[in-house]
Write a structure and sequence with these properties.
With 96 residues, the protein is of the alpha+beta class. The protein is built from two helices and seven strands; from the N terminus they run E-H-E-E-E-E-E-E-H. Strand 5 and strand 6 form a beta hairpin. The protein is globular.
């Protein structure tokens, strides 16, 4: 698997840009230099993200979203594919 996330990715399973395998790996988004955890969809080439607008829902029960434009930098939270397991082990030893 490549270490660069795709140009466009969505959390909605009905979207053509949905990829369950990549989402299992964990994709983080840095938008205009800040970490965003509520991103529903992003596009690097077009420079936008969609974020949930609070707890509002449309008439079909889907979250209402806002499109924000700016610099989008996606990254994998788990670069090596098993780095989270080793990070968890070091995190436990720090707590002792």
């Amino acid at each position: 698997m490549s270490d660069t996330p795709p140009d466009r990715l969505s959390l909605d399973p009905r979207s053509p840009h949905f990829d369950a395998e990549l989402l299992k790996r964990g994709v983080g988004i840095r938008f205009n230099g800040q970490e965003k955890t509520n991103v529903e969809e992003y596009s690097v080439s077009e420079g936008w993200i969609r974020v949930a607008a609070g707890r509002s829902r449309d008439r079909f029960g889907n979250p209402m979203t806002l499109k924000l434009k700016g610099t989008v930098e996606p990254y994998y939270e788990d670069v090596a594919g098993d780095g989270a397991e080793s990070a968890g082990e070091t995190g436990d030893s720090d707590k002792e």
